[in-house]
Amino acid sequence: MKHLFKLMVVVLVMSLSFTGTVFAKSEQAKKSLVALGDSIPFGYNLENNNNRTSRDAYPYLIGEEADFRVRDLGKPGWTTEQLLDAVTTGDTFRDALKHADYVTISVGSNDLLAVLRKVGTVDVATLQNEVENATQNIVTNIIATIGEIRKLTDAPLVVYNIYNPFGEGDALNSYAPVLLDNEQGVNAAFASLPIMLGKFGVSGVTIADANTAFTDSGEYVIKGDIHPTVDGQELLAQIGLYAFGF
């Protein structure tokens, strides 16, 4: 974690050492939520097909409860690197963020799943080492993404940490602590983000603890899948609203 701390400092200095223009938003317009991330905010596998975002996905549920306009920019399969690239160079993303009153980020799961596909589970020590490397990459990209967002909006920003998608009967369930819960793991790094960002004058970032909320994931994850059920999306909406202060 000490090495990760140093890495976070370097990335923060690079990402946040200069101030961008924060664009004014109309006080009369309905408040807007921009949701960034992967297949989780997209609402993957909640509909008969996955041609468009699902209205049962948590961004829309937050919007319904808080009376927000919602721009759901979740993209199935995306990694933290792809999200960073989109926020840095994508006009659709940047234009949406300029007018955002609230922002959510849910990404990183695909980075870790790539480690499992690469390494497998035959050697826990090797897996843990690769997870630590992936964690550094995830945190680097998320910090840089937040830096880009802060050039465009000062909106409250909720970052979801990563839940265990493997049920009790799944052979991979026993590896969840290695992936998520140890002191070098990704969720420990997520937890430190608001404090670290605050030291560099970046405020308004809160972590939504999806991992704890999904501790008993049976009813919250689609059977034979890794994506949230409708109940799971409702739970993600609840913890997101709580993180925003509603």
TrEMBL record:
It comes from the Bacteria. Residues 1-24 form the signal peptide. The keyword Signal applies. Gene3D superfamilies: SGNH hydrolase (3.40.50.1110). Keywords: Signal. Pfam families: Lipase_GDSL_2 (PF13472). Residues 35-235 form the SGNH hydrolase-type esterase domain. This is GDSL-type esterase/lipase family protein. It comes from Aquibacillus salsiterrae.
